[in-house]
Amino acid sequence: MSTLQPPVLAIDNLRVEYPLANGTTFTAVENASITIGPGEIHALVGESGAGKTTIGNAVMGLLEKPGRIAAGTIRIGGKPFDPVAGSAEGVVLGRDIGAVFQDPMTSLNPLFTIESQLTETMRTHLKLDKAAARARALQLLKAVGIPEPERRLKAYPHQLSGGQRQRVVIAAALSCDPKLVVADEPTTALDVSVQAQILTLLRDLADQRGIGILLVTHNMGVVAQIADRVTIMHRGKVVETGPTAEVLRRPKAPYAKALIGAVPRIDVRLDRFPVLGEEGKGRAAEARAALRAKAERTDATTDGTPILAVEDLCVDYMTGGWLPGSTGHRFRAVDKVNFTVRSGEVFGLVGESGCGKTTIANVVSGLVRPTSGRVIYRDKVIAGEGTVRRIGPLRQAIQMIFQDPYSSLNSRLRIGSILAEPILFYRLAATKAEAERDVGQLIEAVGLEAEAAQRFPHAFSGGQRQRLSIARALGARPKLIVCDEPTSSLDVSVQAQILNLLKDLRDATGLTLLLISHDLAVVRQMCDRIAVMRRGALVEEAASETLFTCPQHPYTKELISLVPTLDRIRGETHAA
Amino acid sequence: MLKVLLSRLGQAALVMLVVSAISFVMFRFVGDPVSSMSRENASVEEKAELRRSLGLDQPVVVQYGRFLARTLSGDLGISYRNQRPVTQLIAERLPATLELVLVATILSLALGIPLGVLCALKPNGVAARLVQAFSLIGISTPTFVTGIVLILVFAVSLGWLPSFGRGQVVDLGWWSTGFLTLSGLKALILPGITLALYQLTLIMRLVRAEMIDVLSSDYIRFARARGLPRRYIHFHLALRNALMPVITVTGLQIGSLIAFAIVTETVFQWPGMGLLFIQAVSFVDIPVMAAYLLFVGLLFVLINTVVDILYAVVDPRLRARSA
Amino acid sequence: MKTAASSPRPMSPSLMTRIGAPISVMIAGALALLIVGCALMASWIAPYDPTDLASFELINAELPPAFTAEGDSHFLLGTDNQGRDLLSAMLYGARVSIAIGGGAVLVAATLGVILGLLAGYFGGKVDAVIMRIADVILSFPTILLALLVSGIARALFPGAATAEWAPVILICAIAIHEWVQYARTVRAATMVETAKDYVRAAKVIGLPPSRIMLRHILPNVMSPVLVIATINLAAAVLTEATLSFLGVGMPPTYPSLGTLIRIGNEFVFSGIWWIALFPALTLVILVLAVNIVGDWLRDRFNPKLRVKR
Predict the structure, then answer these.
(1) Superfamily of domain A282-304+389-561
(2) What SUPFAM superfamilies has UniProt attached to this entry (chain A) (predicted)?
(3) Do B137 and C135 touch (CB under 8 A)?
(4) Among A58, A421, B183, C171, which is least packed, fewest CB within 10 Å?
(5) Of chain C residues 182-221, which have a CB less than 8 A from chain A?
(6) ipTM strictly over 0.95?
(7) Which domains does chain B have, with CATH numbers?
(8) Is the domain covering A9-110+176-261 a CATH 3.40.50.300 domain?
(9) Residue B175 has pLDDT above 70, yes or no
(10) At C8, is the pLDDT very low, low, confident or very high (cuts 50, 70, 90)?
(11) What pLDDT, on a 0 to 100 scale, did the predictor assign at position A310?
(12) Closest C-alpha among A443, A496, A497 to residue A472
């Protein structure tokens, strides 16, 4: 990096506080120091609540009220930031600092054309006339790799795909040649393949235009792929900072070690995730043994025979429809899918958003009816032609775990009655007291204290709620649990705990798991066999190790190569 | 575009069919048309004859068909009370009501939008708090009380403005307007304000809520992050987004203004359709009630269709979907 | 205030301060409770019984309030055109207004919540049919629909305008329009809740729809309903007053606040201002107080809920 120019951003001992209603203050960021040189990408990583977004907002002068900078300095291009004015002298937001936000779907105003949203910034800051601004907008769209830029200028945001919109957002951020870009989770809302393109674009911008980028993210893979330096934050404090390769390879702080260790690896399969302090060991084992005993009282088979068969499954969705004058539009979400899940295994279904994997989960668990094809559990058709009614043991056999731990538990009911519901409904307990005892056992089996039954869901963290959601599924004494993105809304360290829990439960109770995920690394760590989906169809099915070591289908290869991972760290590849 | 238009027209036709059916049922089954239309001491034969001549001996579906045909040709029957064709009565009263509604709509939009924006931009300012308090009183005061108070102050005590009627009107063809004479304009002021007040508060609150919502959206945050000037963000970008639902609501409100005009017209003895209707209700004058229902239904459907089409023109998302 | 009393946690003033109600809201709440309380106890606290024809005489007609020069100390707020004590008439009138408003809210909310749950949960044809009906009803303003209903009722049963039937007809006339608002809100909320994982979980367990709707969804969609109910109580009282003012509501023999204002309106020009003024003031204060509380509830519990189509 050039040492002649001043750093584009120099944060020194920054402290951001939020005064609270009860008179105390909440410190969102404490003693944070970050320096970014021209052409440098500096990643700011941490789990939710770490304060990383707050730093980004502070730099842009967009701290949400009543937040304020309580101490420290921010220098932008060498010029000090005035916390009262909310900007640095001679530094104009939009001209000297560009911003890229997380969700490209909502970052652009739906009522204005791309042209108008691109040119307004230039006309404001660079005083360009209409024609000059338009010409420059065209250039920018080309620079960010948007096909047919002339046509796109006249388009409205909803006419572009998510990836294209994020490119437009980046173009808007670049429109006045800023020296610094603050990118807040710029790829979190995007699919892996689009993410890869956007990351390459950001890297090129830094390399070719010498822009310094403050990259706020929670994704270690993204950091490894494009960042020059990284700062790890935890609860408002900087835990560790340094060159990317050094921090990721040899983290020193315990938290940094734990965080990096918790990231699922795509390159090699580990037995368990290394996790800081696991909960409730002894009692959990006992409770799990009891669960297993109960499960076997009803039926016992974990011998690798087929438990679930999906045959020629097709699901169509109708959009629009019944209104007079409008004809419905048919959309095929799942197209002739076949696979078999064997008893006792973990079967993974992966693909990008919209590939139909969740629809399959819904069909298997009886939430959606297939258009054609069948789903067979053991020897009974449970979906499609010739379906037997899903009642009693058949219904009980397949349960589900959901993605969002905040919505998967009814916030108006106590944990006890949520967990007792399947037990009582399936008459698995003779008396209320017995049901209560079972609930206590379930809670212990997922590593929490039995007293949790008395409380409401809001008393628990996301990870704890996910444990309780798993406990509810176990309460029905299922043979197969469909896990629909069970960890994708959790922080990485919590994800590691939940995945460990699922592994332990599988080992302890002989469950079969159907794991739906978009995250290839998670799937590799968890699954015995994996099926890859694309646009409703199955492209490849293989044993987990085979799939990752020698993928057959080009799409699988592409997906695997695009995942940003810790084993391909920028800087190291340069050196190699 | 064509598709939206067709689907809207289909819906409009559906609503009109329902309305006409209700209107027909009222006309046919509520109260006995024969006893209402025949003389007090008519004989059984005379009544039977009248029944036949009215077609009441035919199957209901045929009667409904005839009713529709007659309605489409503009024949809505004869008022029991005035013994005059209902169409004629409504045509006479229509201009008075529409002019009143027009004045009220303009007033409520012209004041409601700026006040709503003011409240959204400076929610803790003195002006915004005053406006908010005023709007709460506004929606809590029934129209007729507002009207009575205005009459007491400006007509009875101060004597500045007339308390009832339209003043002098000028006939332009069949349309009689109060816009062209001083007394006509003066007569419009109090009823116009009375009618506008409720809508004004509604529009103001809507604009405020929408504006606050839009100002906290990601795209406005992004506009701020691009360093665009405040005024530009507020009045060029955000206001446009905030006004989208106002279009729909204003359309709906014009309809309910026509209905609310019933109250205003009663208080101010304004010779419009509302007064005609309320008199019809008290005298159980079914043909007038049925016709008014049909007419207001038609106006409503027309306005809503126009608003929906307008909406599709203004909102690029809908425009594209329909293209 | 009915809605506050029926919510799971009663809103005593101390609780309201604890959850941060500003002083204006507390005053409004207290005022609303005071008026409702007085109205409910009308038969005990009113000096006279205005429905008892024997209790008033024409000789006392149009007496001004007791605090004016010509006032009679027997009649604190004066008398109406028939010699009825205005204060008593107002207490009874407020009771009628509140009963009809509350009744309409209850009927509308019950109907709307049930239909909204069904439409939102099942979607498809059930939803289409219910929402089409709602759309058609919404094509007509409350007041017009209410006038039509009461007009038709008058034409069908001669007894419709009597004191016994008028309240029932008024409740139906108001509720027939208002249920739509509940149905739409509950439908939208139900659709959101139905898509949430806890409902999917309940479905996977295999619970019957009735149980999912009542046990799981209903408690989660009730808070907007309570807010709308509060605001609608104010609106329903206003609609009743308007209908009575127009002469199609409560008969003069059993007046509501609106009927009293209608009677008073005929005398305003002759300088007899009190017959219209006091009932109007009571009405406005009651509605304003309920609206202030309702507004605050909305902002507090459901900022997203707004006047929108």
Answers:
(1) P-loop containing nucleotide triphosphate hydrolases (3.40.50.300)
(2) P-loop containing nucleoside triphosphate hydrolases
(3) no
(4) B183
(5) 196-198, 200-207, 216, 219-220
(6) no
(7) 91-280 (1.10.3720.10)
(8) yes
(9) yes
(10) very low
(11) 92
(12) A443
